């Protein structure tokens, strides 16, 4: 048995703001939308895929909603801080062999970022 890519569904209160964040700040491409007004969107970059779903009553938790593996955590960290994105945990090299940090999207959803260190 083999599993393929997993695409997390992220609840957002303002889907237009979320779409702008993922495409504008993070450089993803919007590949699908549904509804009028839009209530669901898919954004992709490289092999990463995120599903955004409008949930007007959404309240974020303190748990990370997804772990994003990247090949340059420092570049992503710099990009996010330049865009005034809220950083929950600053960039660091962890003792488990990853460069890591945690950021929050405009809705407060937390994403853990990791880069394997050589």
Q: Would you write up a description of this structure?
A:
- The strands form two sheets. Strands 1-4-3-2 form a four-stranded mixed sheet, with helices on one face. The chain has a four-stranded mixed sheet with strand order 5-8-7-6, covered by helices on one side.
- The chain has a single domain, classed as 2,3-Dihydroxybiphenyl 1,2-Dioxygenase, domain 1, CATH 3.10.180.10.
- It is 18% helix and 43% strand.
- The chain has 118 residues and is an alpha/beta fold.
- The longest helix has 11 residues.
- The mean pLDDT is 96.
- It has two helices and eight strands; from the N terminus they run βαββββαβββ.
Summarize the structure.
This protein has helices at residues 15-25, 73-82, and strands at residues 9-12, 29-34, 40-45, 48-54, 64-69, 86-93, 98-104, 110-116.
Question: What's the main sheet like?
Answer: 4 strands, mixed
Strand order of the largest sheet: 1-4-3-2
CATH class: Alpha Beta
The SSE order reads: EHEEEEHEEE
Q: What is the average per-residue confidence, as pLDDT, rounded to a whole number? A: 96
Question: How would you sum up the global shape?
Answer: globular
User: Would you give the CATH topology?
Assistant: 2,3-Dihydroxybiphenyl 1,2-Dioxygenase, domain 1
């Amino acid at each position: 048995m083999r599993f393929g890519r997993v695409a997390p569904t992220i609840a957002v209160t303002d889907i237009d703001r979320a779409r702008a964040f993922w495409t504008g700040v993070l450089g993803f491409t919007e590949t699908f939308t549904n509804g009028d007004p839009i209530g669901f969107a898919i954004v992709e970059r490289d092999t990463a895929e995120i599903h955004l779903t409008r949930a007007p009553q959404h309240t974020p938790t303190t748990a990370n909603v997804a772990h994003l593996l990247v090949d340059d955590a420092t570049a992503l960290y710099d990009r996010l801080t330049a865009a005034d994105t809220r950083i929950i945990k600053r960039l660091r090299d962890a003792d488990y062999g990853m460069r890591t940090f945690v950021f929050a999207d405009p809705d407060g959803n937390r994403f853990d970022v990791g880069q394997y260190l050589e």
